Amino acid sequence: MIIITLFGTTRGLELQHFPFGVNALHHRLEDAWIGITASQLNLRPEKNAVVVSRRSLENQLATWIGIYRPAIEMGYERPGGFYGAGAWIIDHVVDARLLIESLEEMANQIKDIAMQRNHFVKKISDARNEFSPPSRASVLLSTLAKVQQGLAAEGESAFIVEDLSYIEVIEWAQRARSASHYSKVFIGSATHIPMAGRSPTLKVFESLSLSIEGAYQGLSLKYRAVNERAYSLSQEVNRFQEEKTQLENDRNLSYEKLLRYTNDLRKSITYNEDLVRELKIQKEKNYLLQSRLNYFYGVTRNSQATENNEQSATGSSGLQGSTIEADPFSNDGNEEPHKTTKVVGFFSLEFLWVLLLLIILLVLIFILVKVFFSQSDSPLEKRTFSEPLHESSINDQSMKLRQIPEGKGAEKVPLIENENKTSIKDLINNGTKGKTN
């Protein structure tokens, strides 16, 4: 499918489309896609300039081939105006010679109908019905072929100097593999090359062969850049793979930690449950112990009350009022703690215990004293229990020692004898009697 387009800067850029083929107007075309600037082309009236470009249009390749001539706008004398004819070829290629002949025919119609001495005098839209289709349009449609290679939808811009014919360059731009380095090609003479203010992205080649060589160099550089990009991408992939492995390891480690923490938590829960059970058991034990203590203190109070009642019944003299304070731990729920109870009686249970201890102590002292005097070595020490002897009676006595026969120990038993064999006991008795007399 082909769309023939007539264009010109009558009062700004103006376009008129003439479709040829099935569904030729199905695609939406932008007017700005065919515009040129002074930094790309320096148009001259003596020779046409050709522009070939490609862009992606709804998943298809749209090829633009147009011839450009200089023109002056209506009512303005400013430079930079242009007019011409071109064709949008959707996803196909055509015979370049037939196409250029058809476009030159249509551009000449614009010059004859809407212009005078390179000045626009009529808008293209106003003269639309005056234009005739190309005489070889049907033949041109028969040359359509599916696009295979050629210019790319994205790439660099090149200016190729070709003084003799545009046909070879157009065919190269449509079909050659080396043209894939470029997306837009300007074809013209050396006078069409912009001398001042040229676009820095525009590459100028003196011939088609040089442009092909430059294309291959550009392709090699592009291939090298692609390889470098692929290498960098592979490095990034490796790095991402390492990071993925590290993340998986961290995830596994985190999962292990989570499992360990979960097990520790379960153990802690089990331990806490055991503690709770032990606390319940201890609480029950404490409750039983408290019950027993309450029972014991109750029995004790009852026994004390019974004893106090018995003592008060005897009517003993010297009775005095005393108070017994209730045990603070014997609260059985019926009595308040620290409640005091008045009892009558002097001989309380504590007093009886103290009295009993005193009696036992006195008995022990008596026994010790008796044992001490019974085993004393000097008989004279017994005089402490009687009156002292008279000196005259002591002088009259004689003391002798009798040795105990061997075999019965070395103990000496003191014996006191006198002529009349009077004992000390008798002397003590006599002395007592004399004193009495």
What's the arrangement of secondary structure elements?
Blueprint: E1 2-9, E2 13-20, E3 49-57, E4 60-70, E5 82-90, E6 92-93, H1 96-114, E7 115-116, E8 119-120, H2 137-142, E9 145-146, E10 156-161, H3 167-175, E11 182-188, E12 202-205, H4 208-314, E13 321-325, E14 340-344, H5 349-374, H6 391-395, E15 398-402, E16 413-417, H7 424-436
Parallel strand pairs: 10-11, 10-12
Antiparallel strand pairs: 1-2, 1-5, 3-4, 3-11, 4-5, 6-9, 7-8, 13-14, 15-16
Account of the 3D structure:
The protein has 7 helices and 16 strands. It is an alpha+beta fold and 437 residues long. It folds into 3 domains: 205 residues, no CATH class; 110 residues; 58 residues, no CATH class. Strands 2-1-5-4-3-11-10-12 form an 8-stranded mixed beta sheet, with helices on one face. Strand 1 and strand 2 form a beta hairpin. About 16% of the residues have low confidence.
Structural class of the secondary structure composition? alpha+beta
Helix content: 40-55%
The total count of helices amounts to 7
Radius of gyration over all CA atoms, rounded: 71 Å
- CA-CA gap between termini: 183 Å
Number of strands: 16
Number of domains: 3
Strand content: 15-25%
Sheet with most strands: strand arrangement: 2-1-5-4-3-11-10-12
Round the mean pLDDT to the nearest integer and report it: 77
Low-confidence stretches: 316-346, 380-387, 389-421
